[in-house]
Design goal:
about 35% helix; alpha+beta; globular
Length: about 375
């Protein structure tokens, strides 16, 4: 049987230490909750606009959110430095609620997702340690990815089940998207449910910054998404006053009209093709990769990938990069979508290196 690297053993060891510290009979979930409480105490978890950078960390995250013109802000987010008690790990998540209870759904998913992911990661590690065919040293990146992918898929299923069982949140016709990134050393693992988007800014050979889209906007117009919905007897079509905006509908009702094909909650269409299964991918971060922008569709409806990278890279203060992007998006809404109520707009800018971009690294369209 292969052996685990110190990175893998680190999280399991951290969980077991917490487990012993609080109770000899403490469950894995309780151990994870204990870790979360300690992280909050040490100001390693951010849930409001601002920035986070732990001492000695290469990570720097800037976060900002702006309420739209449709009522309560249904966007929310979380940045957890030293995720799971590990110095080389970070968790970022951004959630875009919709429907009458959307803000409650988004906050519930924000609360349960990190802990569920840690718990499932612990279980996946334990299962892998018992697998005689498992050899981490054969292909470390592949095995890490497979472990994280399995953990994300299980966590998302658990989070969606939690919502369905929650007595105080009506998520039958309300839901949320979820875009999360876990950074572990020089690898990032991206999990996406819905139509929020992650865009990487990397330095090209000529020194300019170029965008690389890391996620797919899971909207009903995508052929594979539309086919799944159709096979489940759901319907995809545009309203007459919204040409080009494909939505998901129940078989015989003019509801709910969802503009995304994957989401947590929304149980009124879970039997008709809507799923909460994440697409999970990974990327190895190099010296050329500078930052990732994670944002809700309120940004991407009016700002291109190229524009987002330009706006963030030109921010004189990295701590205010997300605010700069959100405010630019708000101005773009007023300019490009007159007469249409502005959506909630939220962004996380995760910088990979401690030193800011050099003056020579200019962005070019």
């Amino acid at each position: 049987m292969g052996h685990f690297s110190s990175m893998f053993n680190g999280l399991a060891r951290s969980l077991s230490i917490k487990k012993g510290r609080y109770s000899g009979k403490c469950s894995g979930d309780e151990a994870v909750e204990a870790i979360a409480k300690e992280a909050k105490k040490n100001n390693l978890i951010l849930r409001s606009s601002g920035s986070v950078n732990a001492n000695g960390s290469d990570n720097f995250a800037s976060v900002f959110s702006k309420r739209g013109e449709k009522g309560m802000n249904q966007d929310c987010f979380i940045v957890w430095e030293e995720f799971g008690g590990q110095e080389d790990m970070m968790f970022c998540g951004i959630f875009d609620g919709h429907g009458p209870w959307g803000h409650y759904v988004a906050k519930r998913v924000r609360k349960t997702m990190p802990s569920s992911l840690l718990s499932n990661w612990q279980e996946t590690l334990a299962e892998a340690s018992l697998d005689l065919d498992f050899d981490l040293e054969t292909d470390k990146k592949l095995h890490k990815f497979n472990l994280w992918k399995r953990s994300h898929i299980r966590a998302c299923a658990a989070v969606d089940h939690d919502l369905a069982q929650h007595r105080k949140i009506d998520s039958f016709c309300s839901g949320t998207t979820a875009l999360t990134i876990v950074r572990q050393g020089e690898l990032i693992f991206i999990a996406n449910v819905g139509d929020s988007r992650a865009v990487l800014a990397t330095t090209s050979d000529d020194g300019s910054l170029v965008p690389i889209q890391l996620t797919i906007d899971f909207k009903p117009n995508l052929p594979q998404e539309a086919e799944r919905i159709s096979q489940c007897n759901g319907r995809v079509f545009c309203l007459p006053d919204e040409p080009g905006v494909q939505r998901v509908w129940r078989p015989e009702e003019e509801s709910p009209g969802l503009a995304m094909s994957r989401a947590f909650g929304d149980y009124c269409v879970k039997d008709f093709g809507l799923i909460s299964v994440p697409e999970v991918t990974q990327r190895h971060i190099t010296n050329e990769d500078q930052f990732v922008v994670m944002a809700t569709d309120g940004v991407w409806d009016v700002i291109s990938n190229e524009e987002a990278v330009e706006i963030v890279s030109s921010a004189p203060d990295r701590g205010k990069a997300a605010k700069r992007l959100v405010e630019n998006a708000a101005r773009a809404w007023r300019r490009k979508r007159r007469g249409i109520a502005m959506d909630d707009i939220s962004a996380i800018c995760l910088f990979f290196h401690t030193s800011p971009l050099s003056p020579q690294q200019n962005f070019t369209l």
